[in-house]
Amino acid sequence: MVQSGDHAGDDAVFKALADPTRRALLDALFEADGQTLGRLCARHPQLTRFGVMKHLAVLEAAGLVVAQRAGREKRHYLNPVPITAIAARWVGKYAQPYAEALVQLRTEIERPGGSAGRVGPVSKESS
Fold it and tell me: Which of 6, 58, 113, 115 is the most exposed place for a label (fewest CB within 10 A)?
């Protein structure tokens, strides 16, 4: 199956976010950005240093983490842009019809003579 660059990037982000350990690493970077590998390992003692490195590599490949060297240290920074792009592309697209339906419902309820005084479900015939 051939994928465009944009869809391949989305796939990498979804793959990275699918793992609870990687989500925990992202949460740790959200709480304190710019952590070293040693500090991330200390926050996740159930993982080996190599395990944390592998998870960080997946997060970096997806663009969710950016690593910068500062002398001997390598600091890891959260990059929320891919998550925001997915939210705008996917969540926004699917949430729009529901948001519009809620606005219409509110308008109907607040309208004089609307369904504010009704009890029970409103059928299509009563609208």
Answer: 113
